[in-house]
Amino acid sequence: MASTSDRLLVNSQLEHLQARYVGTGHPDLHRYDWLSNIQRDTYASLVGHHNMLQYVALCENESVGRTKYKLLNKMFLPCGNPPERED
Amino acid sequence: MHLYNVTLQRGGNIQAAIYGSFSAPKTHEIVVSRTKVLELLRPDANGKLQTVASTEVFGKVRSLCPFRLPGSGRDHIVVGSDSGRIVILIFDAKTRRFKKVHQETFGKTGCRRIVPGQYLAYDPKGRAVMIGALEKQKLVYVLNRDSAANLTISSPLEAHKSRNITFSIVGLDCGFENPIFAAIELDYSDAEQDHTGEAAREAQKQLTYYELDLGLNHVVRRWAEPCGNGANLLIAVPGGGDGPGGVLVCSENFVSYRHQGHREVRCCLPRRSDLPSERGTLIVSSATHKQKSMFFFLAQSEYGDLYKISLDWENDTVKDVVVRYFDTIPTCSSVCVLKSGFLFAASECGDHALYQFRGIGDGEGEVEARASAASGGGADPLTFAPRAPSNLALVDRLESLSPVCGLECSNLYQEETKQLFALTGRGPSSQMRVLRPGQTVVEAAVSPLPGSPNGVWTIKESKSQEHDSFILVSFKNASLVLSVGETVEEVTDSGFQTNTSTLDVRLLADDSIVQVVPGGLRHILGDGRVNEWRCPGRKQITSVSCNDRQVVAALTGYELVYFELDETGQLLEQEKKDMAGEISSVCIAPVPEGKLRSKFLAIGGYDATIRILSLDPQDCLGPLAVQAVAAVPSSMLFVNVSTSDLDEESGALYLQAGLANGILLRTEIDAVTGQLSDTRTRFLGTRPPRMVGLRIQGKEALLALSSRPWVGHASEGRFMVSPISYEALSYASGFSSDQCPEAIVGVAGTSLRILVPEHLGGAFNATGCRLRYTPRAMAISEDHKVVAVGQADCGVVPNRFVTAAAAPGGEDDDMEVEGEPEGGREVQLGAVRGPADQWGSCIEVIDAATLKVSSRVDMEDNFAVTSMSLARFEGQERDLLVVGCARNVTLQPRGCDGGEVRVYSFAEGGKSLELVHATSVTDVPRCIEPFQGRVLVGVGKALVLYEMGKKQLLKKSECRKFPHFVVTVETAGDRIYCGDAQESFHFCRYRWEDNQIHVFADDVIPRYVTASVALDYNTVVGGDKFGNIFVCRLPADASREVEDDPTGGGLLAAGGNGADRGGAPHKLDPACSFHLGDTVTSVSRTTMQPGGKEVVLYVTVLGEIGALVPLTSKEDADFFSHLEMHLRQDNPPLCGRDHLSFRSSYNPVRNVIDGGLCEQFSQLPREVQARIAEELDRTPGEVLKKLEDMRNKIM
User: Fold this and answer.
1) What is the ipTM of this complex?
2) InterPro entries from the entry (chain A) (predicted)?
3) How many CA atoms are closer than 13 Å to the CA of B357, on its beta-carbon side?
4) For residue B646, is pLDDT > 60?
5) Are residues B194 and A81, on separate chains, in Cβ contact within 8 Å?
6) Mutant choice from B136, B348, B349 vs A, greatest count of A C-beta within 10 A
7) What's the whole-model pTM score?
8) Is residue B875 situated within a structural domain?
9) B122 and B161 share a domain?
């Protein structure tokens, strides 16, 4: 049985992780946040790997610079506006 | 199954380029990142780019920046990569290597969203660098020097801001005040919380200044202001007295000057006149040129137009921003302005170029936008029509295949080795290239000769001369002397005997010349007198060899005569010896520097031996060593090779012998005892190789002339023998002249050729044919000797191209000269831009013999070609071309308004295409493969089997069990191997009896397949989008079960235990897996040399050509995996990424050995080599030999 202090410790460690690593989940994570996070990661990966950026640019017939700009802009709100939340 | 991965040609794509003085102060050099490879380029005196060093880093370089400490003349290189580390390198000019100075870890490995590495910025005064991630993290490192003038690095200072996407970072020039870094950031925290969308609409990109407080040693966010949502790039403006400081913010359609406490000065970019109104103009790369008195910027738009941006400023106040159209060159990922007046343009796709400035764009009549003018800041921008470059003149180009979309191997030209046909480039740089293995040579001159020569030599007039003055061509009963000057002319008063053939000619150390004719020796002195030595009796010279002071001649009747140049300048007979057998060839070693004579003489005998004789006066012509060889040595040559880049003196003397059976034999000679050791052999061709000495980059090299010519030279610590992509030469000699200091003069048939080797070390020689749009699919018809290429581009207006008249002078234009005669010489600058869903597409038939487009079929009605294949249908006598195309294709999300499978027949002997019929399909037909007299077409999620019909193709069978999108189909027997766009391979079986295709096995790993080829009945090799190459194999028992099952596994697949699990009844085993770091676009199985081993050849988006070689014995696999293991420990990658972790980026590396890493063994210091070799129970020589053999097996 974990004592209250243990649980607090776990909580604070989790908070620390969430602050440090973007995208660390928590039990009440909304589907929207999860999806946004995944998509941002994907776009970041496409921009970071030059071969994939070139691949996307080749398909879309755009310059690599334009493709990168488009993908970065998409990172802003990859899943559109957030749903209404009840807090 | 073990595979050995070798890179045959490194990827040509340049991802980033920086300019600086890296090897020594005041040098003009460029360091480029080819993503996986770091290279140092240096333009030589003629403006030709030389690759000084090239190192594979086994990681991904993402950003580079130069860094110079105050007061220092040399630049360091700061590298941002996927290693989670900042690495600072310096280039060591002596060893010609990059050396790691610092490596500081800050995060996890991999190209992640919040781990810095994507952006780098440096303080121009050399005090700090900032390394940034795409989101949140930015770290500042303070760099300084210690008392020994070494670079020191601080611990990182954080400038993080959560939920901020970074678009660009730059270091401001603010003199010796605190360093400031500027960034474009976009904060999404509010927008993500507000469901009404209000916050998202109001969100604005911010221009933020981060100040590094050197006194307090921390970073503060000093200033932030909205800068418009189109902003994408920052350019630092010189400051601290040289300029006003601040930044230029490049945004879509305009550029503005911004600084803290300064009003915004905004200038609209002039637009291309043919651009649709909904398209913007985005600056994608820029370079700054700064002199004492002035500075300007060159910025390039996404369409390739260069703009010259200059500022009108006074006392830190910018009054005006002036943007002028400068020139149009291919779109670049980086441009560098060199202080020596050159511009290096690293293209996004296609060849890179070095230009020389002819003007700085201040001519009259150019479009000029000003911030102060009404049009400058307003909504109505100026327009211009792009033209061919007039301010820039092309000096040199660096070949790049990137991006390669397809590859086929075929021996269409019936040559000794297969040719590779590659679809390369994009838009205006699209080409179908024919690659032949071998060094590229440029034919500088061809002139006919009056007969069939039996020898050619070049001679200088004196040792002090730099260039050759005579070419001597020998015929059966005459010799022709040509003098080299402005023109090449015959001379008659040269002192050479011309009424007989010549065996050898040589300039001796005292500037006299020896001409060897069959009857004897003629020693032509400097003053024109000739001393002759005649062969005794009726004897004749059969073979001769000379160096600077010594001559040795083999006479008929087993006799050997040895001459030496004495102090008085007389060539005197020193010794004579009767040999036991007939002599096939003789060779004398070159005189070592500072010595009077060489000690060694090699004699090849018809008894298939090589004997080494001593030339020591004490023991003249005494035997030293003997080696029995496989065949008669017909030609020999001594070459001094320095086996290590690290010290030039570490050379060794090698005897290279061409044997009568076409084998080149290489043996090391002990410099003291003359003993032979470490013999290596290589098959060169069907003719006995003739060896010719040569100088390449000032070092000794060799030419071996067999059924094709070969060149051998030392590079990266290895002596490499590689074929020359040229017809067979019978005789050759090195040739040096003003225009080309290291050329070759050779005889092919009855003509004399002057050849210049280009970009030494390239594995392939490419010739090409320009295409209209980006190539997407190809099919080679061996019957008609034509190549059909399907091309498609989205977002263009079909059949309308931006063209401009070529610059006067013509031949130096760098872009696509349309070969069509009607418009004169025109430069193609790409297709005219249109709406994103509009496609331009066509099929071109290219005649292989002329490499010209012989006919074109345009795709009308917004159809785009997606696939093609040749197929011979049942009952047909000829191959037909089956083309898949789709209408109104949209990429995101993938979709189309139906597709068609069109069948074409070749007409006019293959020159043109005739439509037979078209068949509608419901989705994109992405792949086509002939199968048992029918065709298999992958249509969206389905695989359809079609039979030939009269009016259209007849659907015979269909399988709809694929999860996403069938992208590759391969067949073997009854089996069909399908690659899915997201779910790896599916093995299917076609059953004739019930006419059904069913999936009997699939993969457990979701791989995004891009290319595949079947290796055997149970095995497929494929590449995926993320840069992995892998082999999937059906387990033997599963294979047996499927074959034994009377329903062929059909019952299981249909209703049994497969369907309810959501997959096929059998699963594939991952046999091999390897991360290349580059997306494979095509794989094929082929042999690259006659009688060679079958290898898997792959090409990638970034232009790399590589091969996977199967290791046949357990012993080899063991040896190489141990060698790889040792190298991982003793030779960690340069950019800080762990080798094993890089190769396992997506899936753990399995059964593939990294040949690129193993080959770095030759670059290790001697003692490390010895230690590793000892642990492998071998000598370093044996290890090197094994590595060399491995490579020689391929090509």
Assistant:
1) 0.94
2) SF3b5/RDS3-10, Splicing_factor_3B_subunit_5
3) 16
4) no
5) yes
6) B348
7) 0.93
8) yes
9) yes
